[in-house]
């Protein structure tokens, strides 16, 4: 087993231990919930678990499965029945489409149509957006007068080629990654100024000043204490992306009662709520179970 350390991992472990301790008396159908190895995914997994347990399902956890690609493989193979993903990630990474779609409804319908052939059903998206983009601190943006990706391109290309970028290595060469972004906006980061790491590591490096900008999403990790903004994608390079539940179609067909509680949960997951939940869980890991349960009760996802 891989050994992990760090505040986020400790928080995740505490959540899991507390939820296991609570146990479940559900005697209904068994459903396998999966999530990748990230704080946000772990939180989504726990939210889904409590929601379905309250609805009478027996929930089997397959948490911390690694990358998004690993989760997708698990869903297709039947190792898991349910997972969360962002629509743009599913469209581009899961299904291999390199043509961005600016209309979020059109993207979702395309995703549903394509994945129906794979035996996967996509539910109505949550309000939470996870658009990919480049993040900077507000102080840095004000000091450099950089608020759009065009502003950044001008800065790097004409004024300061030493701007430091934090990004996952796999995002560099993709046509929908950094090199594609550079081509659309007409500039190039110096190879020596790129720091590789995970999305969450990039947020941390941005907060500590190790990077000037970081590839990320509109929902930042809560370890970032700085006021962080996303540069405006004024040439619409990145596709709109919403948090969405994917289920194996045969599982949903056999268990139609899954739909109602999952729809309630999905509707409650606004961008603000996701950020606030992450903040609370990070701040009080020993109360994680109570925080998650109270949120679900307050949002009428589960019974009080």
Write up this protein.
The protein is of the alpha/beta class and 304 residues long. The protein folds into two domains: 7-129 and 241-298, D-Maltodextrin-Binding Protein, domain 2 (3-Layer(aba) Sandwich); 132-230, Osmoprotection protein (prox), domain 2 (D-Maltodextrin-Binding Protein, domain 2). It contains 13 helices and ten strands. The strands form three sheets. The protein has a five-stranded mixed β-sheet. It has a three-stranded antiparallel β-sheet with strand order 3-10-4. Strands 1-2 form a two-stranded parallel ribbon. α8 links the parallel β6 (165-167) and β7. α1 packs parallel to α2 (39-54) and α4 packs across α5 (104-116). It is globular and about 65 Å long.
Short précis:
The chain is an alpha/beta fold and 304 residues long. The protein is 46% helix and 14% strand.
- Order of strands, widest sheet: 7-6-8-5-9
Structural class based on helices, strands and sheet pairing: alpha/beta
The CATH topology of the largest domain is what? D-Maltodextrin-Binding Protein, domain 2
Overall pLDDT level: 87
Radius of gyration equals 20 Å
| First-residue to last-residue Cα separation | 37 Å
> What top-tier CATH class of the largest domain fits best?
Alpha Beta
- Count of helical segments? 13
Question: What profile does the largest beta sheet have?
Answer: 5 strands, mixed
What is the number of beta strands? 10
CATH superfamily of the largest domain: Periplasmic binding protein-like II
Q: Which architecture of the largest domain would the CATH scheme give at its second level?
A: 3-Layer(aba) Sandwich
Number of domains: 2
State the share of residues found in helices, binned by percent. 40-55%
The backbone outline, from C-alpha atoms, is: globular
